[in-house]
Amino acid sequence: MKEATLLGSQIGDNKGSRALSMSDKKKEAKKSSDLVNGRCHLAPLVSTLDELKKHMSQRHWEIIRMTPFSPLLDLHPIVQERGLLDGILQLFDDPTNTFKIGKSHVTFRPEDVSLILGLPCYGTVVKFKRQKPLSEFEEKYLKTSKDRQRDNIKKKLMEIVHHRSEENFVKLLVVYIMASFLFPHTTSSAPSWVGQYVDQLYTMGQYAWALAVHKFLMDGVPKAARCVKARRSDRKINTGYLRGCVIALNIWFYEVTGTGKKVHYGKVPRALCYGEKSFRKTVSISELIPLSNEENGILGTTWASRVDRPMTAEKVRKKAKVENINSPQQTPLHHSSNDSSKRSQEFNIMVHRLLESLELLMQAARNLRTCPEKPRESSSLTSLLDAIEWLDTIESVKEDV
Question: Where is this region: Disordered (predicted)?
Answer without folding.
Answer: 1-33, 320-342
